[in-house]
Design goal:
Elements lengths: L6 H22 L4 H8 L1 H13 L6 H18 L8 H23 L5 H20 L8 H27 L2 H4 L6 H13 L5 H30 L1
Helix pairs in contact: 1-5, 1-6, 2-5, 2-9, 3-5, 4-10, 6-7
Length: 230
């Protein structure tokens, strides 16, 4: 089941995923969880753009509307020109680009590969790739650290399986708007665990993104239902 004729494609996806993780964890050390999560929502927007450019997916007016409103929401959170854009924010934006590439490549792979194979190659190839930069800062993890790391790995693998499975069912541009709702979970968990409470600009920008995605998801569901009825 692990046979594939697209090893190179798997490798470059693992490279994009490794870059995404490095950018993300570094950014988290520099800014609040909810702010980082809000900015990371540009990742799906990049994925929608890349899907249109490289997969020839058709993005209708409503999806473009979500793209524009989501981008505007991110700008409200960052407030360039009013606030200094720190390195953390820049890293999250770079992560969004890498994440967009990763997701579009995953969508392409679903046309020829099994979901389990796609996820397995990602984890297998990402390990040596991320080991190289880790060697410069290596510290042996403690037992509590290992428990947390194993939990992160398990949750990450489950999330990846769900994402790839979803891409195999519908267009990337349909799936991605729904992922914007993670801002709510990041805000709740950030407050409960780290006592980080987002400022009102984060909530305004997040509300713009959630409103856009909720509307688009509703319209897409209605359109799909009408098409099935025909």
């Amino acid at each position: 089941r692990m046979h594939t004729n697209r090893v190179g494609f798997h490798f470059f996806r693992a490279l994009a995923n490794a870059a995404s993780m490095i950018f993300w964890f570094t950014a988290l050390s520099m800014m609040a969880l909810a702010d980082a999560t809000a900015l990371s929502m540009l990742g799906p927007l990049f994925a929608m753009l890349f899907a249109a450019l490289f997969l020839q997916e058709k993005i209708g007016p409503r999806r473009w509307w979500a793209l524009v409103l989501g981008m505007a929401g991110a700008l409200v959170i960052v407030r360039p020109g009013f606030e200094a854009v720190g390195m953390g924010a820049i890293l999250v934006l770079l992560r969004g680009v890498a994440q967009g590439i990763n997701k579009v490549m995953a969508k392409s792979l679903t046309k020829t590969e099994d979901t389990g194979v796609i996820v397995a190659y990602l984890l297998i190839l990402a390990t040596p790739i991320t080991l190289l930069p880790a060697l410069f800062y290596w510290q042996w993890p403690t037992i509590p650290d290992l428990v947390v790391l194993i939990g992160m790995g398990a949750v990450g693998a489950i999330a990846n399986i769900c994402m790839v499975k979803a891409y195999g069912m519908v267009d990337v541009s349909v799936v991605e708007p729904i992922t914007f709702t993670r801002l709510i979970w990041a805000a709740v968990l950030g407050y409960m665990i780290f006592a980080e409470f987002p400022d009102y600009w984060t909530w305004i920008g997040g509300a713009m993104i959630v409103a856009a995605t909720s509307y688009v998801s509703h319209r897409e569901a209605r359109a799909k239902k009408a098409k099935s009825a025909d």
